Every structure is written in C-alpha cells, then in structure tokens.
Amino acid sequence: MIRRAFEAAALLLLLGGAAVAEENDYPTNARVDYVIGCMAANGQSREAMNRCACSVDTLASILPYERYVAAETILSMRQGVGQSASLFRNTPQYDDTIAELRRAQAEAEVRCFK
Length: 114
Hints:
Layout: H1 2-16, H2 18-21, H3 28-42, H4 46-62, H5 65-78, H6 83-89, H7 92-113
Helix pairs in contact: 1-3, 1-4, 3-4, 4-7, 5-6, 5-7
C-alpha cells in the first residue's frame, strides 16, 4: 500500500509537475523526496499525496530551489552537536534563511491543507 502511494506520488509529480517545472528550478527527485516526507507526516492516502504535491508546488513557486536547499541544510546542521552546530544556531543570517522557508511553508499550508 505504501509503495503504491509512493509510486503514485512520483507519477503525479512527473506528469502533473511538468508545467510547474518550467516556472522554477526544483528537480523532480527533490519534489518526490518532499512528497514522501510530507506523506509520512500526514498519512499515506491519496488525499495526503495530493495535498503534499500541492505543498511542494506552492513552496517551489515562492522559494527558489537554491534557498530551499540552504535552509534545509541549516536546519540539518542545527541538529548536530559541537562547535559546527553552534555556528549554525548562532548566526542571525541563518535565522533569516530559515524564516524565509517557514513563511513559504506557512503559505503552502494555507493553500493546500486548509
């Protein structure tokens, strides 16, 4: 069941995301990865897949891929320990990058999950 949902999500992104792909630079594998993670958090249903696909499309329309990757990297590094992780937690510029991602995610939430 889960595998079928993932396959359906990938197919939806490949077919339905073609028009959106022209408007932004998110690669298909990044979109699929986002949808899989989103579905893990929101249920393995067709409705969740549709909402998650909407969410990544919305995110991509607001936030360029390069900034999305930067924000996700900062979030990942902040989970670590030691001096390197501390650097990522204590740099105001990084806070701005995370805030930009959070605003785009909030908009996606409003558009796709309400």
